[in-house]
Amino acid sequence: MTLERIGFAYNPTKEAALDLRERAEGWCEVRGIGHWAAPAGEREAFARELPKTGALVVLGGDGTFLRAASCAVDMDVPLLGVNLGKIGFLSKVETDGMEAVLAQLVAGEFKLEDRMALHAEIHPGGQAEASETFFALNDVVVARGSQARVCRLDVAIGPSHLATFTADGLVVASPTGSTGYSFSAGGPILDPSSRNLVVTPIAGYLTAIRSVVVSPRHVVKCRVVDAYDVLMSVDGREDRRLAIGDVVLVKELGRPVKFIEPKGAVPFWDLLRQKSELLPS
Q1: What CATH number corresponds to the domain at position 266?
Q2: Residue 198 lies in domain
Q3: pLDDT for 79-100, tens place per residue?
């Protein structure tokens, strides 16, 4: 498989990302490779260009990658991240290796890895019809807002009641998102190519359940029982205010997001060790 046209999504607020975009476009120009570039999250440009694109290369940190993925998911275009952030678990390439990886893409020297994503719905007052639906690559979080008051959340896994948590909130993460907020809240890290949901309460009060790993066959249901101020956040980029009685449903999206695995890429568990060494002790 070779690529004839490459898209570049970038963070327009970072000078380093703008410089990297110029480098990438210059590399393509010299070699006669079709290309385009747009800020991550600019949906009109993505809708116009992605159908004619073989790969989307994201220039930025994990936040930029998540915004780009939300635009690309419906187009089935594979993604590759070039890391400009601090940790960059979603990126396979550092900036000094970008040109070499672009050459691999053009030559077809890469594999595709399927990543499970999430579908979320808000059901106001628990009604049957959803008011909004969302895509998440990393996680869906139901948590208290600016007020330092805990929430009471009734959580079910499929037909089974799991617990009523008194906590700061709840994280439902994909395997890809298991290295993020879920891990910070005490959840396990899953192999990113696996297919499971991780359900983790945030600072749960007097609960024996710290985190559970759920089959993708099940739907996770979270009902707001009591809260002064509570929000649902999707991949840390979309927030919706919830009310008592509202229900959030989270399940497997049903189609994977394709990640590009360049030839010679660092395996995930080695990458995890390397990235962990960058974190402050």
Answers
A1: 3.40.50.10330
A2: 118-252
A3: 999 988 666 778 888 888 899 9
Long-range contacts of 160-164 (CB under 8 A, 24+ apart): 162/199, 162/209, 162/212, 163/201, 163/207, 163/209, 164/225
* 114 included as an active-site residue: no
Same domain for 128 and 246? yes
Q: Name the percent of the chain in helix, strand, coil, to the closest 5.
A: 25, 40, 35
Report which secondary-structure segment, H or E, holds 154. Answer: strand 151-157
Give the Å distances, CA to CA, from 232 to 191, 202, 276.
26, 13, 28
Q: In this predicted model, what pLDDT tens digit does every residue of 222-275 receive, in sequence order?
A: 999 998 889 999 999 889 999 999 999 999 999 999 999 988 888 888 888 877
Higher pLDDT, 107 or 173: 173
What angle do the packed helices 98-107 and 15-31 form, to 10 degrees? 40
**Kind of pairing, strands 5-10 and 34-39?**
parallel
The tokens describing 204, both together, are: 């749960």
Indicate if 9 and 109 belong to the same structural domain. Answer: yes
Count of structural domains within the chain: 2
Give the per-residue pLDDT at 189. Answer: 95
Q: Are 192 and 269 in contact (CB under 8 A)?
A: no
Residue 260 in tokens: 């590009």
Residues 100 and 164 placed together within one structural domain of the fold: no
3-state SS assignment for residue 219: coil
The catalytically annotated residue of 19, 62, 76, 154 is: 62
CA distances from 116 to 63, 131, 218, 251 (A): 18, 24, 14, 10
